[in-house]
Design brief:
globular, 8 strands, homotetramer, TIM Barrel, alpha/beta, 12 helices, 308 residues
């Protein structure tokens, strides 16, 4: 009952490229996946919040997973987000992902309908029952689902074998630290991953088993070096790498007039386009792609940090 | 460019009955639909928030719409909720509902991914483009989608023919009143419906074109009388009917230990079960059905108000 | 045990004028008070949220109450806001207001420190014990204090004689309606007033005993006519007056670049300045007064509605 | 323009003891202050959120500062919270604290009235102008004041000499890390302190100049050892101390039926009472003191961790 060793280290959430007419851009997708695996990442998380999961129809989701499995070709584990509103719908998403070759599934608390911790716990139990041996991660992302998963419940579900891990994007570092500590006491059943790319250093010090940093789409090697340094207890290097990565992260705050997904994932797509990895920075409907001065602002950040 | 006359008056959101093994309970569904049409309602809204839309797989949603259209058999208009996360997924939901015979579609702002008013407006434009002449209602329900639709935008989209109406479950009576007033100035293109069953009287005074009261599943006739009184300017009766209905609405607050959907829709299902319209009060996973003292508490409210 | 008849009808929250060097502008204050009493209001509420209560030192608060009592001179009841963080501080504010001649006191739930309904209820009990016979109103304003006062608790405290009334600025019309109905069942111990100037019509239909509309600083006569019409059951006039007043209320939304107090109370002050009632539109520090195009935009609204 | 060296290291927010009749319990206060100074802390912060600032009248606040200055007697710097709603009131609080001997002042963003970043920035500028050379800390505590202070603004005000430091209780570790990094780029004008006792280790790794841990009232020595280890780059010890302290912190979550201040500061007071430092665990009105099983639960945590 100790965490699955496959799900440790740097496991970026993969940004999904679109063609200008909103189809999956397979060549760009292939370049990005190879760029990150070449950079040394330990796994890849597809159909996460920044991977267009909620913008994609079921057919498109299947295409993304199918292409991902083909391109990755077993080089690293493939985690797949099965984001949907409530239990029965999530079970359907999960079964399709398993059939297409996912190594692990990542599910949020139920959302849209109002509920509480009782419903969240029952939800994960139903999912585990439906998915059997396939590792299930709880994705704690209250900014999207408006429920915070309690650390006591998560640790308990880990100890019972319902959950294999947690991807924490809650922004609650106190809860995260309690979770790591409780997980340790219970024999470390959960693989606890942080989704906060700006404070991965603190999460590693807290005892995280790895990270899911969106910014690793743009600069995977820095996150890989940070993880290795953390494994060796070289905290000076951990901090220095985080400092450097955070400078690149200003692609999030140099643009104007954009909020949410348009500014966040939009920055990733625009950077990857400027770097020649993506053929365009097209966004899924109803979001508009960045233009003009916003593109220039991101270009400057990349240049200042040696990425162009 | 004046609001479609079919979508006025009392249009309850239909609660969906489940068999104990979580299948659609068709006989109960038929009884409920006939009970409300017999009570004089002007339309029925299927797959709303209280109609298990987010708990139902696509296959189940199709079954609900198919049975609804069959049972209603043209007696009143059939509105269908096409609730899903973002534009492409909502378009798919809408196309299937149209194919199955929906008279109008009801869509929320996009949710899960973070966005703002720019994305919400573009979303409704994309939907209208995809659905053509089928009337499209904006469903303003920030408690579920965490975006409030601005009244200026809604009125503008009405005037442009993008939206046919608004179902307001925002709890913001100030915004609702501004919307009614602006809609009037623009020639009344929108059918503006309130989803707040407890203050339908105030909404009618504000100028609403009708209501979508969940409590009308339990007591449709009161809402029908209230609407007729409002049409005749008999505000004393409007208020008296609302007062009486609000007594019944205490089925929401006499239970203990339940939150959100479990307490709200759970109260409807339990009442309908006690009244013999539903064969059970089964809830969709991961929500538990009411039991024991909570059932007794609801029973007492129904008895006190002459419904048992 | 029936609500105090003095606290019914239109009781505007009085906006406080400042000289350019941030002193109380007594002549402007006198003009405003006389303008509203001349317009027929039934009471005046000083040191409310829009009356600069939280911007004023204790000395300044005392000056405001002293001048208010002097100028009003018994023509209408004087209600005084005793807004402060927690119980002991609020008691001090209340004792000073009583000594200066307040006819009733208005207190919010405790704020800043985190608490719940248990603390809120105990708070009002402590205040009542300290103030004895002086009528105490609960001021329900979660947007400022981040606690919603439950209608069951408010009605109970009314029935027990702890509270004389409620000033509801919660924006929760469902809760408001339940409160009115419960109050009625208990013999109407509370004077229930709405603070939502845009939907006073709905609140009157719900059974409100009066209103506390900020916009009555600018146009008291409309609110007075609305109250009289409501008393006579003339709901057509009630709605028509509300419609007209809401046009004036667009002084809130025609400005740009301002949020919160700067845009709301700033609009009142700018309107009163343009109308010659105030000598300036100075705002309390750290808020800036409106300038340039924002002043012009408000001027246009006033002109369009015959107030200039 | 580099941060004042006096305000580094462990600077606990001092819990304020009450006698059973709600007076300041001076002997208990003296014991607590000496306990913490004996434990090696680098400063003390009086009248913070956990120091009953918002529960205390001005007279009581003065008494607390006066006694604090007397008891501390120059052994460590005395920081004083000057928490009040808006600018003029905060200035008054600050002037009194300066007169009584405060070494530094700690002020939040304005609260109660709605405002934005423009008002917050102007507020701190007004305070600095009023207080002259006395060091001013911005206290970032959105859970109480409902405004988050932006890191760009804080760093700018540091570089301009308006702010001497920041006490961050925002729970936003991303913003905290950006603040530390920006502060460094600007020559480190601000003393940046974290208020999050559970993740002080991560804050130190982020570059914090110290911490303001409430739990240090109960166990100061652990925080002092952690700070020294951080200064020496011994991160293994830093983490181990934090792990140990977090076990003690479960005094926050072993109680039942309490929320907010009653559960948080109530746990501190109860622990200090059980440890013989306080003569009672009396809470300020309207909050009730812990009793019965809750006291037993805290006792057990203290025993399990060798504090009893």
């Amino acid at each position: 009952m100790s965490a699955d060793k496959r799900f440790r280290g740097v496991i970026p959430p993969v940004v999904t490229p679109d063609t200008p007419d909103h189809e999956l851009d397979v060549p760009s997708f292939e370049r990005l996946i190879n760029y990150m695996i070449g950079g040394g990442v330990d796994g890849l998380f597809f159909l996460g919040s920044s991977g267009e999961v909620v913008f994609s129809t079921d057919e498109r989701r299947d295409q993304i997973v199918r292409e991902a499995v083909r391109i990755v070709a077993g080089r690293v584990p493939v985690l797949v987000g099965i984001i949907d509103t409530e239990t029965e719908r999530v079970i359907e998403q999960g079964k399709r992902a398993i059939a297409l070759g996912a190594d692990a599934l990542v599910a949020t608390a139920p959302f849209y309908a109002l509920g509480g911790p009782v419903e969240a716990e029952e939800h994960f139990r139903c999912l585990h029952e439906a998915f059997g041996d396939v590792p299930l991660f709880a994705y704690d992302i209250p900014v999207c689902v408006h429920t915070k998963l309690g650390w006591k419940m998560l640790a308990k579900l880990g100890a019972e074998g319902v959950l294999a891990g947690v991807k924490d994007s809650s922004g609650d570092d106190v809860s995260f630290r309690y979770l790591c500590q409780e997980n340790e006491k219970l024999g470390h059943p959960l693989s606890v991953l942080t989704g906060h790319e700006i404070v991965v250093d603190g999460a590693y010090l807290s005892g995280a088993d790895g990270s899911v940093p969106g910014l690793a789409n743009v600069e995977p090697k820095g996150y890989v070096r940070m993880w290795k340094a953390a494994q060796e207890g070289d905290w000076t290097t951990v901090k220095a790498e985080q400092d450097r990565l955070n400078e690149i992260s200003h692609i999030f705050d140099v643009t104007k007039g954009l909020v949410g997904y348009a500014g966040g994932v939009g920055a990733f797509k625009t950077a990857l386009w400027l770097m020649g990895i993506f053929d365009s920075n097209t966004m899924p409907r109803p979001v508009k792609a960045m233009e003009g001065e916003n593109v220039e602002a991101i270009k400057k950040v990349l240049e200042d940090n040696g990425l162009l």
